[in-house]
Specification:
Blueprint lengths: L4 H10 L6 E3 L10 E5 L35 E5 L15 E2 L12 E3 L6 E3 L5 E10 L2 E5 L1 E3 L9 E8 L6 E9 L2 H4 L6 E6 L7 E7 L9 E6 L10 E8 L2 E6 L2 E6 L16 E9 L15 E11 L4
Parallel strand pairs: 2-14, 5-8
Antiparallel strand pairs: 1-2, 3-19, 4-9, 6-7, 7-8, 7-19, 9-18, 10-15, 10-19, 11-12, 11-18, 12-13, 13-14, 15-16, 16-17
């Protein structure tokens, strides 16, 4: 049965899911989105029936985050198996090469060199940021995307990753609308499944951007993950994406849900067409600030896998 977002929000508030609202820097392209700050150590399980309108607050127990999902159809994946130093599968990924700041005043030059993006020989993709002079920049790193190879609307998008650490590190796993060349950003839409400020070792951010709610007005939530820093081990970062609902989770715990009813008045829900996957590690920029004397290099974003499933039946 469908319910209004008002009912969901009331129920969520009743169980302590929504703890604060504040302003914080944007996930994708600029600074200061609208933030639902959910700094908590527990969370809801992933959503139940896919009738799109609500998260089932009663819920079911989430499957282990590092196991195949029972009853789900895996439609695309990369397990990053291969020899150390090998480039990621060219049938899955293309490199984004450049040093223009990527719209965020980032400080790195992203390359296609194995020194910055390659398999580590242990079943991981390593995106490595280095302090080095290169093409007029003081840092290098990497950014890859699936847009020319695979795009999809709706389903579960997840990655198991170990984050870097340190002031000015900005790892991200995000989606960009495949119509970006035709309509531009932010009309194409952007879903930032996870971003992290390296100086905030236990906090993850999930954000969406669209026309009228982009950059400093992106709609975002933050979650504090209890325990060791995110750089100390692997965690699963995911969304469940339906036609009128996007649900963000970490390690199977939901911390943010978004529906069209939550958008600013007069704006458009643009999460209705295929998006491609992007993995990158930025150095500096509006969201994180510059590295400082406490930041050590190299820093690496390790990706164990990326898996995409059909929507939950």
């Amino acid at each position: 049965m469908r319910a209004s977002w008002t009912a969901v929000a009331m129920a969520a508030a009743a169980i302590g899911l929504i703890s604060a609202m504040a302003l914080a820097p944007a996930a994708g392209c600029d600074t200061g989105p609208l933030v639902f700050d959910l700094g908590m150590t527990g969370g809801m399980p992933d959503p139940g029936p896919a009738d799109l309108a609500i998260v089932d607050l009663a819920g079911t127990i989430a499957p282990p985050p590092d196991a195949a999902l029972p009853g789900r159809t895996l439609v695309w994946q990369d397990e990053f198996e291969g020899a150390a130093g090998q480039r990621p599968d060219p049938s899955h990924w293309s490199f984004d090469v450049g040093g223009d700041g990527w719209g965020n005043q980032q400080l790195e030059f992203t390359t296609a060199r194995p020194e910055n993006v390659s398999l580590d020989g242990n079943g991981h993709l390593a995106i490595t940021a280095r302090a080095e002079a290169y093409q007029g920049k003081s840092y290098t790193s990497g950014r890859i995307n699936s847009l020319g190879h695979f795009t999809r609307a709706f389903g579960r998008f997840e990655a198991r990753m170990q984050l870097p650490a340190g002031q000015g590190m900005w790892p991200a796993f995000w989606l960009l609308g495949n119509n970006q060349p035709a309509v531009g950003w932010p009309a194409c839409g952007e879903i930032d499944i996870i971003e992290n400020r390296g100086q905030e070792p236990n906090i993850v951010h999930g954000t969406v951007h669209g026309p009228g709610y982009s950059g400093g007005k992106g709609i975002s939530a933050a979650r504090t993950v209890a325990g060791a820093p995110l750089s100390a081990g692997f965690h699963v970062y995911a969304i469940e994406w339906f036609a009128n609902l996007v649900v963000f989770s970490v390690d199977g715990n939901t911390y943010f849900t978004l529906t069209p009813q939550q958008l600013p008045a007069g704006t458009q829900w643009v999460f209705d067409h295929p998006f491609g996957v992007i993995l990158d590690l930025a150095v500096g920029g509006n969201f994180v600030g510059s590295p400082d004397g406490t930041t050590t290099f190299p820093q690496t974003l390790l990706v164990d896998y990326v898996r995409i499933y059909e929507p939950q039946p």
